[in-house]
Write a structure and sequence with these properties.
This protein is an alpha/beta fold and about 600 residues long. Helices cover about 40% and strands about 10% of the residues.
């Protein structure tokens, strides 16, 4: 298995062999429960498997992937932890089974051809990542998170052993009890994440999530230890943001936190001379994917690189916060409607609605509009004077004819992916998004590229399960959202952060970066126009015209900005992936 540090095989009493990649949480407590001394994560998993058998993955916590090969070599057990985990890819024929944590390991055997999966390319250009088992290559499958799969020559059995929707409700006596329990779990998460590391760093923004991780980590460190924080800042003028909704420079918020904690050193990272093309081929090679948001990766690369070069052995993030401790609770409207709590529903709708919106219109938008078939919704939008631009004219660079050929729209509907990104008012939508898509693959690619471990305390399973089992009113009330996080962070982070309603804008300086790379990107698009395999899939002609006609200092146009900031990076990244896959040898030895 591919990882840092390398996985070492562990022999089990029955002669089977265990391979383990990732990490376990609460290692000392797990060792005590098993009656053994703390040891490696692989050895702990082996001991837990001997004790609990098939229930081992239900009983332990961590972010890992595991392979157990029977002594006979005729059957294999694969498992991935819930919520977040390193990837597992596998290819099988009647006589052979090849498993690895990245596609390039399968290709290196000489038994698996490197052929891209056209359906995956089409779906990804529509941002549909809901078919978790489909990889980017023909014949290679992926094990979904929270899943155990048994494979043998004539059999394949799959068990999905974890579902946030099936958690037993958690009911405490008071709001203060929920806050106290949440804080205790976040402290446990940070303590567990620090286990085995001596010099942590943190990727810090101005939002609640990473501020919470930095604050609790700074408090958990030994008195003499320091915590380095890296904050991405615009490299020059930022694209104007809607002042009521967004802010473009997060460094002042990070510096405010640094003034609270004397052991927190904050550094701004400008990432000069880089944008979405930076180290793309390394991501292709080590992840076997096209990154979903390539336009945001340059500063993540830079922070990981700086942390490693300055001697840090782990980088903390808060990337899972929006789906755990800082849930916004906006599915409450559907729950209040279903529970016939209409007085509360009306009151909260009045508090949540836009200033120019009627209560009736706000109720329609939150409860009924997301459930309408897209064609009906689009007609009603048009009648109301709010005509909605097609995804193929804005953020998606896919060639519309190719989208039809690969049934992109119908597949998105069938898998619960709304290409119009209407708000889905069900709690299930929040749970479905946790850890899915390409999270494990991109994490592994960054680990291989930069050689520094990453931990996200906000993906700690006991904390996540607590947040998804408590009443929704702990997240939203009296017109306020993200209430649990705001209450947990009282006295922990600056008040301007705790009470901020706006969201930080990532890559807010994309206009400047685009201007610097405009000539090179235009030339690359010209070259791609001569590649029929690319133009059949991606609308290169339209993107080149939009780029070449772009007036840099013109007033903001949402359609043009969506094409240049979202569709263009997605198109270039996908085109490069296709060309990379086609020119890279697959070492086929079957002839």
């Amino acid at each position: 298995m591919d990882g840092q540090p390398p996985a070492h095989p562990v022999s089990l009493p029955d002669g089977s062999i265990l391979l383990f990649n990732g990490h376990l949480d609460d290692r000392a407590a797990l060792a005590r429960s098993l009656g053994i001394s703390p040891t490696t994560d692989a050895a702990l998993y082996a001991a837990a498997f001997i004790r609990h058998g098939e229930e081992v993955d239900v009983r332990i916590c961590g972010q890992y992937a595991a392979i157990i090969v029977a002594s006979s070599g005729q059957s294999i057990r694969l498992s991935r932890s819930p919520l977040r985990a390193p990837p597992l890819h596998f290819w099988r024929s009647h006589d052979e089974l090849i498993v690895g944590s990245a596609p390039h390991l399968l290709f290196a055997t000489g038994r698996v051809l490197r052929e891209i999966d056209e359906q995956k390319i089409a779906d990804s250009l529509a941002l549909n990542y809901n078919e978790e088992e489909r990889s980017w290559f023909e014949g290679i499958r992926r094990l979904p998170i929270g899943t155990i799969k048994h494979l043998s020559r004539d059999d394949e059995r799959t068990r999905h052993f974890h579902d946030l929707a099936l958690l037993s409700p958690t009911r405490l006596k008071s709001t203060e009890d929920y806050v106290e329990q949440g804080r205790a779990l976040l402290q446990d998460a940070v303590r567990s994440s620090l286990d085995g590391f001596e010099k942590p760093a943190v990727s810090l923004s101005g939002g609640l999530d990473s501020q919470a991780v930095a604050a609790f980590t700074a408090q958990a460190l030994p008195e003499e230890a320091r915590l380095k924080a890296y904050t991405s800042v615009p490299n020059g003028p930022a694209t104007p943001a809607r002042a009521g909704e967004f802010f473009t420079n997060e460094l002042p918020y990070a510096q405010e936190l640094g003034r609270i904690y004397g052991n927190l050193d904050v550094e701004g990272v400008t990432t000069e001379g880089r944008w979405f093309t930076h180290q793309l081929e390394q991501v292709f090679e080590f992840g076997g994917i096209v990154p979903r948001n390539a336009a945001n990766l340059h500063w993540i690369h830079d922070i990981a690189e700086r942390a490693r070069n300055e001697g840090h052995d782990v980088l903390f993030t808060g990337s899972s916060g929006n789906l755990s401790f800082s849930l916004d609770g906006n599915w409450a409207f559907e729950e209040w409607f279903r529970r016939v709590q209409w007085r509360r529903l009306l009151r909260e709708t009045r508090l949540a609605k836009a200033s120019d919106q009627s209560v009736l219109r706000a109720l329609y938008a939150r409860l009924f509009a997301p459930r309408l078939p897209q064609p009906v919704w689009l007609v009603l939008q048009k009648l109301a004077g709010r005509e909605h631009a097609s995804p193929f004219e804005t953020w998606s660079p896919i060639n519309p004819d190719w989208a039809k050929r690969w049934n992109v729209a119908d597949r998105s509907d069938a898998m619960g992916h709304d290409m119009l990104f209407r708000f889905e008012p069900r709690a299930a939508a929040y749970r479905r998004d946790f850890g899915g898509g390409e999270a494990g693959d991109i994490d592994q690619a960054f680990l291989q590229i930069h050689g520094i471990q990453e931990r996200d305390p906000l993906a700690y399973r006991p904390l996540v399960e607590f947040c998804h089992s408590i009443p929704v009113e702990q997240f939203i009330a009296d017109g306020e959202t993200r209430l649990l996080a705001r209450r947990m962070l009282e006295g922990k982070v600056p008040e301007k952060v705790r009470t901020e309603k706006r969201r930080g804008v990532q890559t807010s300086d994309w206009r400047e970066r685009l201007a610097q790379e405009r000539a090179a990107l235009s030339q690359e698009l010209s070259s791609l126009q001569r590649d029929e395999a690319i133009t059949s899939r991606i609308n290169i002609k339209d993107l080149k015209a939009t780029l070449d006609n772009w007036v840099e200092d013109a007033p903001a146009d949402p359609v043009i900005e969506s094409r240049l900031c979202l569709a263009l990076p997605r198109a270039i990244a996908t085109a490069r992936f296709i060309q990379w896959a086609e020119r890279t040898p697959s070492f086929d030895t079957r002839a």
